[in-house]
Amino acid sequence: MSERIVITADRLIDTERGEVVPDRAVIVEGDRIVDVVASGEGPADARRIDLPGHTLLPGLMDMHSHLIGDDDNGQGYAQLVMRSSAQEAIVGVRNARRTVEAGFTTVRDIGTFRAFADVALKEGIEAGWFPGPRMMCAGAYVTTPGGAGDVTGLAVDVDEVVPRELRFGVTSGVDQMRSTVRQVLRYGADFIKVLATGAVLTSGTNPGMPEFTEDELRAAVEEAEGAGTHVAAHAHGAEGIKRAVRAGVRSVEHGSLMDDEAIELMAERGTYLVADMYDGDYMLEVGPSLGYTDEVIEKVHLTNDAQREGFTKCVKAGVRIAFGTDSGIAPHGVNARQFPYYVRYGLTPMQAIQSATRWSAELMGWEDRVGAIAPGLFADVIAVEGDPADDVSILERVPFVMKDGEVVKDAS
């Protein structure tokens, strides 16, 4: 029989009901939560972890993370050919540790140029070789030739010799889309990431312009659903968002330049919005010192305020919101800096917490595993000093992290 652990704190956040509950104890056995009881109860022979002055929450979740590779320097993706997949994967080990130690015990890793390096990272974490969050992996970007997920900016005489892993998901046409999605899933991806519009960081692309047809996007959704999974769509521009939503994607990533019709459509179809608002400010702050190109800075200005206005409209319209940071632009481990932005632009503090727990679990279809502190779920528990339902910025400082019933970071 596994050791039983009792974790106590001043309060617990019930993310299913959206309530702060005082004086609760969480009983853990093995990798699961077995009960939640009054703080004075629990098996007498259990190991106790007492955290006075703290609040217990389920492990946080980031639905738009990029763990593979170094932080982006804003100078285009042509530099990817200067690094090997081994280098990128090893940096991913560091990023995984920083992420879980920040209290994010589950991520949806939403794409890497080095195809399936994210899958290898997930396998290493699951094997216990190094610490990291629970991962759902996209495997490779599915993008148009020369599009948002392609390696652009290369000279014409070297463009044709880019390694296949950097362009594994480059796709054109409905038939090739079906084939690509099948291959990406066959090589270990858990879901599909399509890039439906241009991107801020990809040179030569326009975030406001669509890059896949609705038929191509629908083919991706049909193949993913046939395999029991979903599609996430990178989409900044309104037309690209509407094509993706009509095609049946599960989530829209960024959503920066949406219009009222796109918002109404997302609310009607139950499409999730995953909006990464902190990293826009981060790019404007550090971009000049890092050497961001003028093109990138111009596109940040184009999308930054518009994204926030759209987020507020989405909250008012009842669009489903899930928490995502685009980590890898801002450094890994500062994911929680996003929380104040979600509150500033429309969510209550409790709703912001739910966006990174219960609502994210629902997006992933993992609500029977993570996203709440409840019997039967994985023992992913964090603790913070004070009450984050009053001040979400507290979540930027996480002194205690448990994942799968093992203490990853100790408050003491």
Can you tell me about this structure?
This protein has helices spanning 85-101, 117-127, 174-186, 214-226, 238-247, 260-269, 278-290, 294-317, 339-344, 349-355, 358-364, and strands at 4-14, 19-22, 24-29, 32-38, 47-58, 60-65, 104-109, 134-137, 141-142, 192-195, 231-237, 251-257, 272-275, 320-323, 381-385, 400-403, 406-409. The chain has 412 residues and is of the alpha/beta class. It has two domains: 4-59 and 372-409, Urease, subunit C, domain 1 (Roll), CATH 2.30.40; 60-364, Metal-dependent hydrolases (TIM Barrel). The strands form three sheets. Strands 1, 2, 3, 4, 5, 15, 16 and 17 form an eight-stranded mixed sheet that branches. It has a six-stranded parallel sheet with strand order 9-10-11-12-13-14. A three-stranded parallel sheet has the order 6-7-8, sandwiched between helices. Helix 4 (214-226) links the parallel strand 10 and strand 11 (231-237). The two termini are 27 Å apart. The model has no long low-confidence stretch (mean pLDDT 95).
Task: Explain briefly what this protein structure is.
The chain contains eleven helices and 17 strands.
Determine the structural class based on helices, strands and strand pairing: alpha/beta
- Our measurement of the CA-to-CA distance between the termini, rounded to an integer number of angstroms, reads 27 Å
What's the CATH architecture name of the largest domain?
Alpha-Beta Barrel
The helix/strand order is: EEEEEEHEHEEHEHEHEHEHHEHHHEEE
Specify the helix fraction band: 25-40%
Number of domains: 2
Give the beta-strand count.
Answer: 17
Largest sheet: 8 strands, mixed
Find the CATH superfamily of the largest domain: Metal-dependent hydrolases
Uncertain spans: none
Shape: globular
CATH class (first level) name of the largest domain: Alpha Beta
The count of helical stretches stands at 11
Rg value: 21 Å
